[in-house]
Amino acid sequence: MTTPLSTNSVSPRPARWAALSLALVAGFTALLLLSCKKGSGDAKPAHVDYYTCTMHPSVKKQSPTDKCPICSMDLTPVEKKGGGGRAGGDVDYYTCTMHPSVKRQSPTDKCPICSMT
To answer: What pLDDT, on a 0 to 100 scale, did the predictor assign at position 85?
Structure first.
């Protein structure tokens, strides 16, 4: 004759699962908290309106670390109009986007090679 198992005995299996579940939740929570970065270096300055690609002006992004989705170039800042940006006297000269060797004194002067402003 077989003896029936006692109903008072507690199986260690549920306790192990509870401990394992608690350890997994704590591990994922720690991983989540440690992987979150506060990107203070990615904040744009107050005088910058947005960032754009020099080759594709239709691309407008808000982060200085973004790249152009068309050509993967770094984006350049576009300053706010009338904002407290740099004064006109701070600019030594203006260059053509396509021909950086061409230096102009006025932002409205055209490039002699490609006629861009």
So the answer is: 46
3-state SS, residue 34: helix
Q: What is the pLDDT of residues 63-89, one digit of tens each?
A: 888 999 999 999 999 888 765 444 455
Beta partners for residue 67, in sequence order: 74
Asked if 93 contacts 103 with a C-beta cutoff of 8 angstroms, the reply is yes
d(CA 59, CA 72): 11
Q: What share of the chain is helix, strand, coil (3-state, %, to 5)?
A: 25, 15, 60
| Token output for 55 | 């080759």
Q: Is 53 exposed, middle or buried (0-12, 13-18, 19+ CB in 10 A)?
A: buried
SS3 14: helix
Contacts (Cβ under 8 Å, ≥6 apart) of 80: 47, 48, 49
